[in-house]
Amino acid sequence: MTKAELIDKIAAAACPPARQAGTSKASANRMLDALTDELTKALRKGDKITLPGLGTFSVAKRARRKGRNPQTGEVITIPASKVPKFRPAARLKEAVGRKRR
Question: Nearest-CA neighbor of 36 among 9, 81, 1, 6?
Answer without folding.
Answer: 6
